[in-house]
User: What shape does this take?
Amino acid sequence: MFSPIRFSLWHKAAKFGKRYVVLQRQRLNKRLLSWPPLLYLIVFFLVPTTIMFIAALRYPGEYGGLAPLHTSQAGHTVWHVTIENFQYFFAEPLYWKLFLTSFYTAALTTLLCIILAYPLSWVIARSSKKYRNLLLLLVILPFWSSFLVRVYAWVIILGPQSGFSYAVNWILQQMGFEPIQIMFTSFAVMLAMVYVHLPFMILPLYANLEKHDMALLDAAQDLGASSYQCFWRITFPLSLPGIFAGAILVFIPSLGMFAIPEILGGTQSMMIGNFIKQQMLETRDWPFGSTLSILLTLSILLVIALSMAIANWQRLRTQIYQFRARYMQQAISKKV
Assistant: This one.
């Protein structure tokens, strides 16, 4: 016999089953969406890294390249695997210094990009929509030309016969100093590195600064905060996620850069990327070149892990700042 209680239970069970099916379908869709990037990472990152790691454990070939992984001796298979390449790297101070020089150059490039990009990003974020689009277009305009064309343009600008070099040396001579050479120096490398990577710092910072709630600054000024305090206590903490995102985008490619030091720095500004290229293409010591590549990859992963840990800590601090600012704003509203 039909019962209202049975009907209610049947209705709830059907509703629960329908919700379960919807949740399972949503989970399946999320997994399907995550497969293409996962497959991309496996094919273009994990597989090449594994091949490089295996190459780092092998001996160099007699005429360069890689020696056979195994040979047959007296009917037995002998594997030729070694960790001498890693031991050689840690035993030779020259390679340590090259790594440290690369880290120093990448860190200095990142710092200069932050200093230059912050005011420019702030101006773009606070300008009217009409001029904002124009300024953003100017920021991304260098991407319309080839990377090598832009680097070789600096060869013309900084060359000994260029007007820039003449102007700098004329000023130095007027001040009583000797003329200097700008090309093939660390200054030329740093100038081009900052120029190339500056847009990668501006765009994440602009995306962050553009979302700031200006009411927070108004509340702080109403409470008597100076412009410096408003920036240091509110704007800067809120912009830290953008700074970290831009720093990663600038630091990682700067660390492995080899084109700019080779074209503008010569032999005086060699970085680890140049040395890996030399080992792989000129010396043909593929095992040692692979060892350097693996250590560079591990260094980058370590930097990313540290950045994520710092970013999580700063995100927690930012949430605390936001909560305090909103509480202060509500307190002012109640007083008014």
